[in-house]
Design a protein that fits this description.
Distance between the termini: 33 Å
Mean pLDDT: 84
Strand order of the largest sheet: 3-2-1-4
Number of strands: 10
Order of helices and strands: EHEHEHEHEHEHHEHEHEHEHH
Oligomer: single chain
Structural class: alpha/beta
Number of helices: 12
Radius of gyration: 21 Å
Shape: globular
Length: 279
């Protein structure tokens, strides 16, 4: 979004996660005050807290069950009576290309990743090709230094953040392994402090790899039984000096991962029928 929405008040309906977050963030970065409406307090406080850190505006949220007509009418009626709303946005009604990853961003990510990610080979797998009677190519992202494509998104996200803003900041992420390794490598490479929340069930081998990649720049916190638990704690513990780097729900991360597609298009000289992501 390239226009200024300074002094505007935006009411964003939908979920506290996913596209609702993306819409709210872009409106906030464009200068608008954001009020986010959702059915539950599921990380809503963390979402608004993050928006307040990114901008000088005091954003807020409303918990309101859309399925309870009486409750919805009363809560929203009272709010609208006492507040002037300039923009009403629901994720499903917003032009998506204003808020989501795009080709220009992927090309910028490719430049950011020069000297960090490697151009991995695209090789034909003879056994699978013979078994399925077609040509199957594998993009060997396991040959990246961190053994997965996650280095692309993590590094592009961190590299895209203004260096002055990062002064005296600690980056935070949650991951069960692969994002953590890319995040740790990026923190070490860019000499930025980071905290990594990982489930207690994470294999010891992955934890050790994260330590190696992050060196003195990262702190590992083992908490929760799964990724969702670790992410919840990571966002809950956020302070004004922290900045959360999501494993996948972030435009810069998506554009970083999208550089794989650019490489594939350069490496394939024939039409391909199907593209499948394999972890």
């Amino acid at each position: 979004m390239n226009i200024s929405l300074k002094s505007k008040h935006a009411l964003v309906g939908g979920s506290s996660k996913g596209l609702g977050n993306a819409v709210a963030k872009q409106l906030a970065l464009s200068g608008a005050k954001v009020t986010l409406v959702a059915r539950s307090n599921d990380l809503l406080e963390n979402t608004i807290s993050e928006l307040n850190k990114l901008t000088d505006c005091n954003h807020e949220y409303i918990i309101c069950d859309y399925n309870d007509h009486e409750e919805y009418t009363k809560i929203m009626g009272d709010y609208l009576e006492n507040n002037t709303i300039d923009i009403r946005a629901h994720p499903s009604l917003v032009k998506l290309d204003s808020y989501l990853a795009n080709l220009k961003g992927v090309r910028n990510a490719s430049e950011n990743l020069q000297g960090v990610s490697v151009l991995t080979p695209l090789v034909i797998n003879e056994r699978l090709s013979n078994d399925l009677n077609c040509k199957i190519y594998l993009k060997r992202e396991d040959l990246q230094q961190v053994r997965s494509f996650k280095i692309r998104g993590a590094f592009n996200k961190i590299r895209s953040i203004d260096s002055d803003y990062l002064k005296n900041k600690t980056l935070v992420c949650a991951s069960a392994g692969n994002h953590a390794q890319g995040f740790a490598y990026s923190c070490n490479k860019l000499k930025i402090s980071g905290k990594i929340y990982m489930p207690v069930t994470t294999p010891k081998q992955k934890i050790e790899r994260v330590k190696i990649f992050g060196g003195e720049y990262v702190e590992i916190i083992l908490i929760g039984d799964n990724f969702d638990d670790a992410q919840y704690e990571a966002q809950k513990q956020n302070t004004d000096k922290d900045l959360f780097v999501h494993a996948f729900d972030d435009v810069n991360v998506i554009e970083g991962q999208g550089t794989i597609g650019l490489e594939i298009l350069d490496q394939v000289d024939k039409h391909f029928d199907y593209l499948k992501k394999i972890y």
